[in-house]
Automatic annotation (TrEMBL):
Domain of life of the native organism: Eukaryota
Compartment(s) of residence: Nucleus
Protein name listed in UniProt: DNA-directed RNA polymerase II subunit RPB7
Biological source species: Chlamydomonas leiostraca
Predominant subcellular localization, coarse grouping: nucleus
Length: 176
């Protein structure tokens, strides 16, 4: 996944009890709490806040709560998967339709149509895809290398479809 540092902005509502000399520290903590680990459909996963660039003067909300809204511009470290990217991931579940794998916050589905023909689904015991000689076995906990063939983003998550049906892709190691 590509890692990038981007300039982002976020509106934060702050309760009046935090107004004072430590306001900037509180805004920084709240920004980290509300953004790190989230997914922005436009930019990808926000991994971390690098630095705060600017905090606007607060605007008192007119709803009677006394909260003030501060617009914070900050640089954030974001990661985003791209079509054609090769990624190492860990298999989390296996079924006859294919398997799901994770690489950090990203979930990848590899359909049985995108798994080499020599690997067949075996439902006996722990479900897995294995070769007829038993030399290759992809099950829960296996490390695989996959190529992303498609992505779909919505406001709060990124979904990927992957393949292991090409040279240099497939099983890297057994269960971790």
């Amino acid at each position: 996944m590509g890692l990038y540092v981007l300039q982002l902005r976020k509106d934060l509502d702050v309760h009046p009890k935090y107004f004072g000399k430590n306001l900037k520290d509180y805004i920084h903590e709240k920004l980290v709490q509300e953004t790190e680990g989230t997914c922005n459909g436009r930019y990808g996963y926000v991994v971390g806040v690098v630095q705060i660039i600017e905090i606007s003067p607060g605007v008192i909300r007119q709803d009677g709560t006394g909260l003030a809204t501060f617009t914070v511009r900050y640089s954030g470290l974001v990661c985003r998967p791209y079509k054609g990217e090769v990624i190492d991931c860990v298999v989390t579940s296996v079924n006859k339709m294919g398997f799901f794998a994770e690489a950090g916050p990203l979930q990848i589905f590899v359909s049985n149509h995108l798994i080499p023909e020599e690997l067949v689904f075996d439902a006996q015991g722990d479900p897995c895809y294995q070769s007829s000689d038993g030399g290759t076995k992809i099950g829960e906990g296996s490390e695989v290398r996959a190529r992303i063939v498609g992505t779909r983003m919505d406001q709060s998550d990124i979904f990927c479809i992957g393949t292991i049906k090409e040279d240099y892709l497939g099983l890297l190691g057994g269960p971790v």
